[in-house]
Amino acid sequence: MTSAAAFPAPVVLWSKPAEERAGKPLLVLLHGYGANEEDLLSLADLLPQEFVVASVRAPMVSGAGYTWFPLTASIDYSLEAVKDAASYVEDWLDSVRPDHPSVTLLGFSMGMALATTLLRRRPADYAAVVGLSGFAVDAGGDPSFRDAELDGTVPVFWGRDQQDPVITPDKIEFTMGWVRKHVKLTKVLYTGMWHGINQQEIGHVSEFLTHGVLAK
Asked: How many other β-carbons are positioned within 10 Å of the β-carbon of residue 85?
C-alpha cells in the first residue's frame, strides 16, 4: 500500500490566476477513475463565478489517467487506500484553505467517494459537497470517519441516473442510508445520463451552490 507521504506533489489546475484567488470561496473538483485534473475543469465556466475552482489530479497512475485509490475487478476498494487518498488531499487543502472563506467539494464517481470521505473526516471544514454519479464508502465504524458529528446541517447534492451501469447496488444502498442520516440532502435522479454528467444536472448544481453556499 502507498502512504499519502509517498505520493507525488499534487497537480492542480485553477480557474483563476493566483492574484485573483484570495478571499473567494473555493470549489475543489475531484475527478473519477482513470481521468485527470483536466476532466472536470470545463465545469468552472458553467458554475457560479463567485467561486475560484481548483481541479486536483489523483496521485496514482491508472492506465492513461489517474485514480484516487486502486479498484479490484469487482469495483471494490481498500478502506486504508481511501484514507491515504483523503490525507493526500487534506495536506494540500491545509496549504490553501487560509486564503478562502469556505471550501466546497465536487466529486464525480470515485471523486464523490473521496469528497464524502473528506467531509466525514473533518465535518466542520466544508461548506457543502456535490456528488455526481458516485457513492460514499462503507467505513465499517472506522474512528477516523466522524459521522456522529454530522448532524444533518451540511448541504449535500447527490445526482445520479438509476440506470447507471457502473456504481453497484450495494454502494447505492449504503450511500442512501448514510446521506439520509447525516446530511442535508438534495437528491436528483436523471434519465439517459448513465454514468455521466448532463447539462440539466450542472444547472441544478449551480442553483445548489448559489443557495447552499453563496447565500449563507
From this structure: 26
Quote the strand ranges of 31-168, DSSP E.
Answer: 52-56, 60-62, 65-67, 103-108, 128-132, 155-161
pTM over 0.70? The answer is: yes
Instruction: Summarize pLDDT for 47-81 with one digit per residue, the tens.
Output: 999 999 999 999 999 988 999 999 876 567 889 99
Residues composing the chain: 216
How far apart are alpha carbons 100 and 96 in whole angstroms? 8
CA distance 79 to 131: 19
The neighbouring-strand residues paired with 103 are 26
In tens, the pLDDT along 154-171 reads 999 999 999 999 999 999
Measured between alpha carbons, how far apart are the two ends of the chain, in Å?
Answer: 41
Give the relative orientation of helices 79-96 and 110-121 as an angle to the nearest 10 degrees. 70
Q: Are 27 and 202 in contact (CB under 8 A)?
A: no
Cell of 188: 436528483
Helix or strand or coil: residue 140?
coil
Give me 137's grid cell: 464508502
Residue type, 107: G
In 3D, which of 102, 77, 90 has the Cα closest to residue 30? 90
Single-letter amino acid code for the residue at 40? L
